[in-house]
């Protein structure tokens, strides 16, 4: 059950003045460690999958494991696409199970960032999925992820932030006030006055990218000024690498499983540590009470076809699969036949929606309307349609 609405989770953190850690995953060890750290501290958690890391794993293979782990958790969990490059990435992530997305067009001019982000918001909101945008640019300095974010930092303007939120409709905003991707060199100069002005202008949850290396007091000041989500990866990567190096030093002939045996424990410990710093420790039960459970919907259509040869039926179904899958929020389209010839209905469409919001989106979407009116209903007058909200 603890897969919850991302917007509810951030709203609770924003009201109660704590931050939820968004921990980027690069494999099952990180997935298990992030959840173990959250469970150990009774903290809500965001399982984050950054598009910049897709070269390290197969996104379509890892996502089912993330969804299964989220449903098994006893603390509130959201599944988030981090640094999505555009609409196509967002569509894919939602189809595979993400219930929150971020589009990163922060490197573009303001008007282009607005246009790209607004396009994503329109699609994602039709699926019931909230969107994180980014204004300003958080550059990389050094470390594993730094090369993914080249160039100079651009600080977020409070005035532009207000216009950006008004023109895009994003649910939360990542801002640039002095943090960096990767490791810090020296001490950062965080512009808390700027952050306070942004928070006052927007009144929505704010997000910090590049959380590694900040001091505990700096995290607390960020949270006091509206930050409700903190992205955190480099320190986890460093903890994992240190565990591998230690294992190799202790046993130079160690095999792979011995080398990575301490990775989960090291990452879990760092997740638990920062959850305490972020103020999320011990918040799981209150957050769970404040959040709606995230539930998929099964759109079921049972019917008896008429006037179709087997060859026509095959083409009819293939067209339906292709066209219905284009509707925002449709995660899967299946067709089937009754096992017994005496069943009341002989055929079924089973269409999996990301959320309840997709019911209305699907009903009026041109692809569904065209297929249903011109192809399906003329050949399936005997039919029954029911939408089921699925239990977690």
Short descriptors:
392 residues, Alpha-Beta Plaits, 8-stranded parallel beta barrel, 4-stranded antiparallel sheet, globular
Describe the 3D structure.
The protein is α/β, with parallel strands linked by helices and 392 residues long. It folds into two domains: 6-290, Alpha-Beta Barrel (TIM Barrel), CATH 3.20.20; 297-389, 2-Layer Sandwich (Alpha-Beta Plaits), CATH 3.30.70. It has helices at 6-16, 28-41, 59-72, 87-96, 110-126, 158-168, 192-202, 216-224, 234-250, 256-259, 263-278, 284-290, 310-324, 357-364, 366-376; strands spanning 20-24, 45-50, 77-84, 100-103, 131-135, 172-175, 206-208, 227-232, 297-304, 330-337, 347-353, 382-389. The strands form two sheets. Strands 1-2-3-4-5-6-7-8 form an eight-stranded parallel β-barrel, surrounded by nine helices. Helix 4 packs parallel to helix 5 and helix 9 packs antiparallel against helix 11. The relative contact order is 0.14. The model has no long low-confidence stretch (mean pLDDT 93). One of its GO terms (biological process) is carbohydrate metabolic process. GO terms for molecular function: aldehyde-lyase activity; zinc ion binding. It holds the Pfam family Dabb.
């Amino acid at each position: 059950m603890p897969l919850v609405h991302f917007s509810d989770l951030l709203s609770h953190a924003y009201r109660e003045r704590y931050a939820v850690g968004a921990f980027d995953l690069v494999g099952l060890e990180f997935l298990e460690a992030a959840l173990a750290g959250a469970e150990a501290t009774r903290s809500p958690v965001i399982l984050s999958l950054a598009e910049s890391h897709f070269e390290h794993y197969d996104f379509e293979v890892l996502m089912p494991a993330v969804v299964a782990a989220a449903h098994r958790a006893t603390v509130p969990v959201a599944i988030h696409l981090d640094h999505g490059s555009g609409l196509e990435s967002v569509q894919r992530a939602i189809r595979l199970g993400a219930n929150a997305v971020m589009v990163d067009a922060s490197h573009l001019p303001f008007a282009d960032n607005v246009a790209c982000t607004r396009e994503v918001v329109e699609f994602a909101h039709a699926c019931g999925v909230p969107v994180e945008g980014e204004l300003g640019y958080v550059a990389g300095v050094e470390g594993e992820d730094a090369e993914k974010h080249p160039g100079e930092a651009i600080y977020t303007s409070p005035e532009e932030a207000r216009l950006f939120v008004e023109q895009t409709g994003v649910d939360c905003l990542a801002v640039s006030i002095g943090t960096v991707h990767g490791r810090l060199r020296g001490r950062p100069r965080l512009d808390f006055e700027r952050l306070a002005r942004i928070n006052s202008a927007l009144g929505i949850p704010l997000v910090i990218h590049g959380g590694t290396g900040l001091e505990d007091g700096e995290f607390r000041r960020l949270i006091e000024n509206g930050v409700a989500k903190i992205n955190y990866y480099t320190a986890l990567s460093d903890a994992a690498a240190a565990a591998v190096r230690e294992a190799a030093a202790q046993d130079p002939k160690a095999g792979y499983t011995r080398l990575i045996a301490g990775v989960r424990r090291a990452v879990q410990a760092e997740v638990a540590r920062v959850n305490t710093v972020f103020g999320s420790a011990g918040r799981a039960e209150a957050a769970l009470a404040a959040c709606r459970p995230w539930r998929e919907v099964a759109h079921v259509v049972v019917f008896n076809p008429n006037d179709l040869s087997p060859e026509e039926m095959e083409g009819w179904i293939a067209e339906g699969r292709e066209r219905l899958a284009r509707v925002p929020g449709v995660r899967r389209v299946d067709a089937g036949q009754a096992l017994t010839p005496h069943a009341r209905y002989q055929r079924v469409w089973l269409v999996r929606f990301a959320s309840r919001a997709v019911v209305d989106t699907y009903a009026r979407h041109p692809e569904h309307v065209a297929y249903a009116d011109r192809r399906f209903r003329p050949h399936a007058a005997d039919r029954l349609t029911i939408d089921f909200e699925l239990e977690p």
